[in-house]
Design a protein that fits this description.
about 180 residues; mainly alpha; about 60% helix; elongated
Length: about 180
């Protein structure tokens, strides 16, 4: 598998367009096959080449755990995104934030988090809320941050860690304006 990835196959290392600018297919449910990808990475890579979004996503998670957000991991997350897994988009965008390759990377990442959040990805909403809180690569906007963070807990796909993180971030935001006691 490492040799196949190091040769940078065109089907995987396509134009790294910003996911927010792509016409994404309908959301596909995540069916994790991480354990199988850990023991049979070549099979997962072959399935990813054959357009199985879950194989791409699970292999990306496997590589990320083993070696971090390198080019191959990012390419696999982007392929999963292009095939309809919004969490692939979110993870790709998180890699852009971590690497901060250029000035456009944070803007692309936050636009991608917005798309992923609209597609009901809990981590997409949490990352969008965090960006709106911090104001890095996106204008600081506490009210939009609150809205995004609250959506993270409404996602049918992730009421776990993304929601817990969103709740902690919500605690750090000032309370919303209440009615005037006059």
């Amino acid at each position: 598998m490492r040799a196949a990835l190091s040769s940078r196959p065109d089907w995987l290392f396509a134009d790294p367009a910003c996911p927010a600018d792509l016409e994404l297919p309908a959301e596909r449910p995540i069916r994790s096959v991480v354990e199988r990808c850990q023991s049979h990475p070549d099979a997962c890579l072959s399935e990813c080449r054959d357009a199985d979004p879950n194989a791409c996503y699970s292999l990306a998670v496997t590589l990320q755990r083993a070696q971090g957000d390198d080019e191959a991991t990012q390419a696999l997350f982007l392929r999963a995104c292009r095939l309809g897994i919004s969490s692939g988009c979110t993870n790709y965008a998180a890699g852009l934030v971590a690497s901060a390759r250029d000035e456009a990377s944070p803007r692309c990442a936050h636009r991608t988090f917005e798309v992923a959040c609209e597609r009901r990805d809990g981590w997409g909403c949490t990352m969008l809320g965090l960006g709106l809180m911090r104001g890095k690569g996106i204008a600081r906007d506490p009210e939009r941050a609150r809205s995004a963070l609250e959506r993270a807990c409404k996602s049918p796909l992730d009421r776990g860690p993304a929601c817990l993180c969103a709740r902690k971030l919500l605690e750090r935001l000032a309370p919303p304006p209440g009615p005037n006691p006059d």
